[in-house]
Amino acid sequence: MAGEDDTRGDRAGHEGTLDPDRRFVIVPERRPPLDAEQIISLIERQVGAVGETNEHLIANARPADLLEALAAASEPRVRQIICDICGFAGAQEALPALVAALDDPSAGVRSSAADAIGKLGASRSEADGELEAAGVALLRRLHAESDPGIRRAMAVGLSGVRYEPALPAMREAAEHDELMQRIVEHATGFMGVA
Hints:
- This protein has a single domain (about 35-190), classed as Leucine-rich Repeat Variant (Alpha Horseshoe), CATH 1.25.10.
- The protein is mainly alpha-helical and about 190 residues long.
- The chain contains 10 helices and 3 strands, in the order βββαααααααααα.
- It has helices spanning about 35-45, 50-60, 65-70, 75-90, 95-100, 105-120, 130-145, 150-160, 165-175, 180-190; strands at about 10, 15-20, 25.
- Helix content is about 60%, strand content about 5%.
- Mean pLDDT is about 85; it is low at about 1-20.
- Strands 1-2-3 form a 3-stranded antiparallel β-sheet, with no helix packed on it.
C-alpha cells in the first residue's frame, strides 16, 4: 500500500527486497556451513540428484570440514566424492590430504584424488614445493598402478601439477594406450615442453 515501507516484502513465503525498478528480488537463504558428520551423512544418503548434492557441498562445506570428513569416512564412495568436491571447490588446503589419498585401498578414491590434485595444480599460476611433492607421489602411483584407467587418472594429475620429470614414464605408458597418448599430448602442451 502507498505510504508503507515497500522495500521489504513477502511473496509466496520468501523474504526479499524490491530493486529500484520495483521488481521483487528473492534474497538467497544463508545456510550455516556443514560439519564433517553432516558431509558424510549427506553423501551416504545421496541417490538420484548427485550433482545437486555435490554443488550444495561445494558451496556450503568448509575445506577443514571436508578434510575431517575425508579422514573419518569409512565408505570408499564417500571418500571418492569428497576428493572430487575438494578438486571442484579449489580447496588448496586439501592438497596434502589428497596426496595421502593416492594410497587409499580403493582405486576409485585414488583416481578421484589424482584428478582433484590435477585441478588444484592447474589452478595455481606456477609450480611450488607442494606441487613438486604431489608430482612425486603421482609418478610413484603411475608406476604402481596396473589398471589403465587409474594410470590415466595419475597422468591427468601429473599434467595438472606440471611435473615434467614424469613425462618419460607417461610417454612409455602411452605406447599402447590411445587415451594416454592424448593425455600426454595435453600435458606437454600444458607444461610448454616438446
